[in-house]
Amino acid sequence: MDLHTHTIASGHAYSTLQENIAAAREKGLQFLGLSEHGPAVAGGPDRLYFLNYKIIPRQYGELKLYCGAEANITDYEGHLDLDNFVLERLDYCIASMHTMIVTPGSARENTMASIHAMENPYVKILGHPDDSRYPLDYEELVRAAAKLQVALEVNNSSLHPLSARQGANENQWILLQYCMRFGVSVILGTDSHFSSAVGDFTQADQLLKELDFPQELVINRDPGRIGEVVNRRS
């Protein structure tokens, strides 16, 4: 599964939904997630875009499509740029911090913003908690994710040499160490903004191998675990 992907609707990605679907089927994925940026991102879709997901077919041969969002955490209280009326109609929600939306704070402020966002019952995944511009208390974050049953993302795009995020390799290493210590599962996401990146977890896989990270703690490895990260009604 790859549940963190973007299309031209996000305003700064370059492939269509049909192109992403074709790429996912070519890669042999069973589940593809559409997770456009929330409306706080310049050029991104508004509320109506997400409310109209109902018109999109969800089955493409062996591939099932889930329609969600990457909502923006907008403050240190963990508020999101999509309200619950929209969120309850999505298949799932990723919550993430982006520098164009919320100014990076202290490790305490960033950690509490993330935890408060995870307390939203519609948030299934915390996106790219790996940027040194947003320092985090990883032990506290992992403990909270376990309690709230939210998956922490290992973001493949963050590990790309051209990524704007800083210190992702070192930060993901620390995050994964705590996940192993406490038996907390993670989910890999490509954060693809072009169709060729859909389903390509090359950098993330390499990091997991270096750590000898337990396969049973990687949600992507087991299609039966899809229900942990999408709404039950899906």
Explain what you see.
- With 234 residues, the chain is α/β, with parallel strands linked by helices.
- The protein has a single domain, classed as Metal-dependent hydrolases (TIM Barrel, Alpha-Beta Barrel).
- It is 29% helix and 15% strand.
- It contains 7 helices and 7 strands.
- The chain has helices at 17-27, 47-51, 84-87, 107-118, 138-148, 168-182, 202-211, and strands at 31-37, 59-60, 63-72, 93-96, 125-126, 151-155, 186-189.
- Strands 1, 2, 3, 4, 5, 6 and 7 form a 7-stranded mixed β-sheet that branches.
- A hairpin with a 2-residue loop joins strand 2 and strand 3.
- Helix 4 (107-118) runs parallel beside helix 5 (138-148).
- The longest helix is centred in the C-terminal third of the chain and has 15 residues, at 168-182.
- It is globular and about 40 Å long.
- The two termini are 15 Å apart.
